[in-house]
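#dry-run=false #mode=assembly
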Amino acid sequence: MLAVLARVLIASVVASAASAATLEERLAPCLACHGENGRSETPEVPSLGGQPPMFMLIELYQFRGGQRPGTVMTEFAKDLTDDDLRTFSDALAALPPPQPPGPPKDTARYGRGEALAAQHRCGSCHNPDFSGREQIPRLAAQREDYLLKALRDYKSGARPGYDPAMAQVLYPLDDSALVDLAHFLAHVAPRAAP
Amino acid sequence: MKSHQLCRSSSSFRSRLRAVPTRLLCTAALGAFALAAPAIAQQPASAPAAGAPAAQSPPPGSPLYGRPNTEGAARLAPIPAPPLPTAVDKLPVAKLKVPDGFKIEVWASGIPNARTMRVGDNGTVFVGNRVVGKVFAVVDKDGKREVKQIAEGLHRPNGLAYHKGALYVAELSKVWRFDDIEKNLDNPPKPTLIYDDLPKDEPHGWKFIGIGPDEKLYIPVGAPCNICMPPETHAQIRRINLDGSSMEVVARGVRNTVGFDWHPETKELWFTDNGRDWMSEDVPQEELNRVTEPGKQHFGFPYCHQGNIADVEFGWGKSCTEFTKPAALLGPHAAALGMRFYTGSMFPAEYRNAIFVARHGSWNRTNRVGGDVLVVTLNGDGSVKEVKPFLTGFIENNNYLGRPVDIAWLKDGSMLVSDDFNGAIYRISRDK
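#status=ok
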């Protein structure tokens, strides 16, 4: 049953690419997992609201070419054209940025994560409010489980990344630091950039 | 958006989709691919809040190590290479400038992240890259260029060499050989692994490789950091026999070279090297270096930069006089990458045996420098006579229109320049 449904969902993306489906119709399968209002309710699936369009384009490009293997996304993206990639990136990036799920559950971890983010200058590329820019993703209020998975995958090499930047930054960090960072970033509220 | 709108995606699926809530569809998609990943191990808080001060320095090894905590520094970040090549009619070729008597044109486009180039015996131009995992071959067919993909699934295949019919491809930590490549572009042979005794570090891990007049394969191993005390195995250029045997170190104290070539007459190895970040807007400069005593020279990293500035941290207790000085300085943070000696007959005599250097352009500097091709002419004794611009125009209002990476020569003596920002290759030839 699950496999059938999955094929239907993927087929709907591919079929709609070939037919004259509206953008809204074509985005529906994306939003089914990533959340209709920019915030994902699905474990380990990222919220996409407010992501920089260039970051979105790069990730879709990598999914399409099999450079981020091991996820369902390659199936979704493999038949998309260059124009499709641009259209989907722009449309998904225009969703509202996610809000934190609530106050941090563990203030000690939040505090350690905040200090780590400052020490490792995460805001240097991701912006001081972690809103992201160009090829660099928004981190503020991203799902904690996704953040931790992404950090671990960058660290282990399971997710080589488009550019080696994240592998370089994570080189000296241990796993407990990643856990703290994910907890902090998941609870950072969006704010206006200074 | 309502979930039932999914049903409109394609009428043929409408009936099956109608009653299915989106969340269930999502679960199905993920479940079917066995991606319901194990629940995250929620690690208990193992220690009380460390209370680390916010201004604590990043650890050595971080690319941000050494970055001052100032507003101006915080504005700088590496500049992305877009993954999709620029359409041919949007390429900036009309804004690019070459000296009088030369012309520049688009030679090939649509090559994602086009970086290192090597030319085969039959004129095939092989193109490597850092971010798309593939190797491309460009063939000239009746005056038009055709781009073929000849390998995929590689990890940062930036290093290429061509020798006696074979293409050598260097990933981050492996070197492969594709035999008889030009005869088999449409059906490339299974490659042979010739060397993988290389570190797997991502920082400065992508490779530039070349085969020297001594028939040995030269492979650099960059420093695994912005600035750090590198392990013995890093910050060097090494060479091996073409079967992978007999490794020896040719040069030490090399932070990250992404371009080298051999002087056509003296056979000496020359290489570009990229200096550290975050020390200052204006120093250190990138280096052009000359290896006169293979295996015996140390080019300064991490102790001394640009031949005359001791590192603010690792320079203590050392003197720049202990290290080999660069032959020329190539600009602060300007990212001097590909370099090639000119041995062709098309360009005027003054360019014979001159070095052309592609500068990718700075990111670690407020006012961008580089984004051009320089020409370096030499004196009779091999010392540098003059460094001057040759191809310019890639920077407009402090933004990049394109970013040159490597240089190659076609059989007629004309020059190719790759641009990884646009996924294009330009050709420069005599205009008269």
